[in-house]
Amino acid sequence: MGFYVKLGVADEVEVKVQVYGDEFYSVCPKCEKEERISVSELGEIEESSGDLSGGVYCRDCSKE
Question: What's the rounded Cα separation, in Å, for the pair 53 and 42?
Answer without folding.
Answer: 12
